[in-house]
Design a protein that fits this description.
Layout lengths: L5 H18 L6 E12 L12 E11 L4 E14 L5 E15 L7 E16 L8 E15 L4 E12 L12 E12 L29 H12 L5 H37 L18 H13 L3 H14 L6 H14 L3 H10 L9 H14 L3 H14 L6 H8 L2
Antiparallel strand pairs: 1-2, 1-8, 2-3, 3-4, 4-5, 5-6, 6-7, 7-8
Helix pairs in contact: 2-3, 4-5, 5-6, 6-7, 6-8, 7-8, 8-9, 9-10
Length: 408
């Protein structure tokens, strides 16, 4: 015989709400409200009563354990009617705990599967109704989708198949089942991290290593740059100073290039090496001078002389395939072709960097390959590069930018 479990049911509800409040305030938890429709399904459609659509509403908390899995705790009121004479109406109060699996995290539409169980208490009115409030257990499973409409607010349409562990809802035989169609509106609790504005380009800076220290008068150039930046308050004066020091910088660069050309010429003569007429600017020095030649090539890139820097890095790749900086040679060759807007060739070099798993340039190469693919309108391949960056290098300085590109 059924007993009244109102006190037990109230304790379960208090426990569930207390649990969700503990999870709250993390900046991850969601709170939501929903409206629903409920349709009774007869166990045997040919000789058992059916029902008509009944209203419902509820509230829920949701705590994500990861981007793909979440715990949902809800409290719902559902009205389920059964075709009898007279009509039998069930007023169901359901508390449930569900596990949710999201299939497309970060997408504009994020489908999910969910399953769970919970206790429910109900009263009946109509033909043959039970006279008291009763307590039972429901198992439920279904699917739906989460549709973000702002940073904190989402819509969640869903359908669930609910199965009671008894036959009390229709006073018949077999387990009682009904469909629940719902539309939820959820709000994220806590502060949302402010997203950085999207940038079309990334300022490319070589990572500081002993091998990449440029053999140029860096103090002189930095001093000139500082003097230029301090004159921004007066536009005309700023323009004059910029032009003046621009000429001095160009003169210094020309002087360095001429000096390097003389040194290269003397070295080739001493070593009796034959110079190629079409690649005279890319002839490599001896092995002990590779670092110096590499730094010179980086300086060419910084000064936007992309064609010359590309020739130099190609020569380094060809002549020193086993050098400890080979992955850097490959990466900066890709950067040079990217600067010349030869994106197809740039992608080839960025992808080749992945052949060196210990290279410090792997995350740089993935973000640059993704950007080059976007410029060629190859969005699917680009997003694959951004996802790979997030999976392999979650702490990379480019992680936030990759996440931003995935939302496009």
């Amino acid at each position: 015989m059924k007993k009244n479990y109102s006190a037990s049911f109230l304790l379960v509800v208090i426990f569930l709400f207390s649990t969700t409040l503990i999870f709250g305030g993390t900046g991850q938890t969601k709170i939501g409200v929903m409206t629903s429709g409920n349709l009774f399904i007869a166990p045997l459609a040919d000789n058992s009563p059916g029902g008509k659509l009944g209203p419902g509403f509820g509230a829920y908390f949701e705590y994500p354990f990861s981007k793909s899995f979440a715990l949902n705790v809800s409290l719902d009121y559902n009205q389920v009617t059964v075709d009898k004479t007279p009509e039998l109406q069930n007023n169901i109060l359901l508390a449930s705990v569900r596990g949710k699996y999201f299939m497309n995290p970060g997408g504009k539409v994020n489908p999910f599967l969910n399953a769970g169980l919970g206790p429910f208490s109900f009263t009946q009115s109509g033909g043959g109704a039970m006279p008291d409030r009763y307590f039972d257990l429901i198992f439920l499973a279904g699917l739906g989708a989460e549709i973000p409409i702002s940073e904190k607010v989402s819509l969640s349409p869903a359908i669930n198949y609910n199965i009671s562990n008894s036959n009390d809802i229709d006073l018949g035989e077999g387990f009682d089942t009904y469909l629940n169609f719902s539309l939820g509106l959820s709000f994220k609790l806590g502060k949302t991290k402010k997203q950085e504005p999207a940038r079309a380009e990334i300022e490319r800076k070589p990572k500081t290593t002993e091998e990449e220290i440029a053999k140029v008068p860096a103090d002189t150039l930095q001093d000139l740059k500082s003097k230029i930046e301090k004159k921004e308050e007066n536009l005309e004066e700023y323009k004059d100073i910029k032009e003046e020091y621009g000429r001095k910088i160009n003169a210094l660069i020309n002087m360095i290039e001429n000096k390097n050309a003389i040194i290269d010429s003397l070295r080739r003569t001493k070593a009796q090496q034959r110079a190629r007429s079409d690649r005279s600017k890319s002839v490599l020095p001896q092995e002990q001078e590779v670092s110096e030649f590499y730094n010179k090539s980086l300086e060419l890139f910084r000064n936007k002389k992309y064609k010359q820097s590309a020739e130099n890095f190609d020569a380094l790749i060809k002549n020193y395939p086993d050098h400890k900086l080979i992955s850097n040679f490959v990466y900066w060759a890709g950067e040079s072709y990217n600067g010349m807007e030869d994106y197809q060739k740039a992608i080839h070099y960025f992808e080749k960097v992945e052949e060196y798993p210990d290279s410090p340039k792997n995350d740089d190469a993935l973000i640059m390959a993704g950007q080059a693919l976007l410029r060629l309108d190859r969005k699917t391949e680009a997003k694959a590069k951004f996802r790979k960056l997030l999976e392999k290098y979650p702490d990379s300085e480019y992680s936030k930018l990759a996440e931003k590109y995935l939302t496009f």
